Amino acid sequence: MSTTFDIEHTVTADDTDYARNVFFADFLKWQGHSRDRFLMRYAPDFLEELNSARTVITTRCQCEYFLAVTVADTVSIRLSIPTVYFNLAILRFAYHLLDPDNNDPLVARGEQQVACVRRDENETVPTSWPREVLRAAEDLGGDVSRAFVD
Fold first, then answer.
1. What are the angstrom distances between the C-alpha of 76 and each of 11, 21, 26?
2. pLDDT above 90 as % of the chain
3. CA–CA distance, 98 with 5 (Å, rounded to integer)
4. pTM
5. CA–CA distances in Å: residue 22 to residues 3, 27, 30, 39, 42
6. Where are the domains of the chain?
């Protein structure tokens, strides 16, 4: 496995404003798509479990924008997981415009912190990560040495 999990998105009019630039919030939405598709591929059992007691919540997210992206552009969203500690994981996203004539420039960069939690009555309680999630994070080069483990 490479050090990133890559997905591609072709921009449609639905992703853009009147000037045909991508809405800033769509970059954050694409972070969620990338994370979910990563789980679909490498941790499908955990993904199934998310509708029960254990779940993942986003505790922080951000995105920096460098270049405009418009209708019909194809963007590669590259997910990396540098670290998983306790019940938290850091997910990083690099957004590259697929343009071989221009060396696929970086158009945005983002990050999420997600927490693995268990629903307990009316509160959420930190809980361990399933081994399949940690294996996948390790395959991307992530440090999982301080993670809560099943």
1. 11, 17, 14
2. 81
3. 16
4. 0.93
5. 27, 8, 11, 26, 29
6. 5-147
